[in-house]
C-alpha cells in the first residue's frame, strides 16, 4: 500500500498544466522583451570585457537574469509533474506571443507566412497535447 502524496506535491500537480500553458509562454515573452531592451541598452558598446561589465550594470540585464531564474524554477515544477514530451511542445506557444510582442510593442511587421506558420505551430501543439489530455 502506498501513502498519499504530500499536500505540496498535490499542489504542484495542479499547478503544472496552467504553468506550462500560460506561465512558460508568458515568461518566454518577458525574457525576449528583456533581451531586446538589454541589446538596446548596450548599443554602441564594443564587445569585450567592458561590454560584459556594462551588461552586468544595466537593470535590463539584471531583470533578465531574474526572469531566467524564475523561468527555470517554473520549468522544474512543470517537469516534476508532466512528461517532457507533453510539456515541451506547449512552450512553442511562446513563439506566437513573441511575434505578437514584436508587432504590438516594437512595431515589427507581421507577414502572411508568419501567421500561417503560427497557425501550424498552434495546430501542432494541440495535436501533441491531445494524448496527454486524455491520460
TrEMBL record:
It is a multi-pass membrane protein. Keywords: Cell membrane, Membrane, Transmembrane, Transmembrane helix. Coiled coil: none annotated. GO terms for molecular function: transmembrane transporter activity. Its main location: membrane. The chain crosses the membrane at residues 61-79, 86-106, 112-129. One of its GO terms (cellular component) is plasma membrane. PANTHER family: 4-AMINO-4-DEOXY-L-ARABINOSE-PHOSPHOUNDECAPRENOL FLIPPASE SUBUNIT ARNF-RELATED, SMR FAMILY PROTON-DEPENDENT DRUG EFFLUX TRANSPORTER SUGE. This is Transporter. It comes from Phenylobacterium hankyongense. The lineage of its organism: Bacteria, Pseudomonadati, Pseudomonadota, Alphaproteobacteria, Caulobacterales.
